[in-house]
Amino acid sequence: MFQGASSLSLDAKGRLSIPTRHRDVLATTASGQLTLTKHPHGCLMVFPRPEWEKFRERIAQLPLSAQWWKRIFLGNALDVDMDATGRVLVSPELRQAAGIRRDATLLGMGHHFELWDRATYETQEAQALQGPMPDVFHDFAF
């Protein structure tokens, strides 16, 4: 299970250095193989390959009415491998789709990560915190 936020910077070639605390798990569970794709909220999803394969199968089974979402998730998926120093290349197309130039935030979301442009994430998080909590939290104990 991946959790926590990391502030990162992509290098000039668009490579992202995976935080050390996640590298060993990714090397063991996914042989350093990841898949990146678009997320409907404007970030990228980063899956260890075994988790991507589960997600891909669920998406592939969606009905024809969800064809555009299949295209968004599957048609934009990119398989990448961590290099010896724990870096992965984020393609220019995916960086552009998520508005990521240099500064990024990587969020552990359980079985996958979200990769955000840092400024976009901070803005959207602030907006969420200013609004009401969703109804599902009304009976939730903190």
Please characterize this protein's 3D structure.
This protein is α+β, with helices and mostly antiparallel strands. It has one domain: Transcriptional regulator MraZ domain (Chemotaxis protein chec). Helices cover 37% and strands 30% of the residues. The chain is built from 5 helices and 8 strands, in the order ββαββααββαββα. Strand 7 and strand 8 form a beta hairpin. The relative contact order is 0.23.
Quick summary of this structure?
The protein is of the alpha+beta class and 142 residues long. The protein has five helices and eight strands. The strands form two sheets. It has a six-stranded antiparallel β-sheet with strand order 1-7-8-4-3-5. The protein has a two-stranded antiparallel sheet with strand order 2-6.
Provide tags for this entry.
alpha+beta; Chemotaxis protein chec; single chain; two-stranded antiparallel ribbon; 5 helices; 142 residues; 6-stranded antiparallel beta sheet
Q: What is the arithmetic mean of pLDDT?
A: 96
| Helix amount | 25-40%
**Beta-strand content bin:** 25-35%
CATH T-level topology:
Chemotaxis protein chec
Task: Give the SSE map.
Layout: E1 2-9, E2 15-17, H1 20-30, E3 33-38, E4 44-48, H2 49-60, H3 67-75, E5 78-81, E6 87-89, H4 92-98, E7 103-110, E8 113-117, H5 118-130
Antiparallel strand pairs: 1-7, 2-6, 3-4, 3-5, 4-8, 7-8
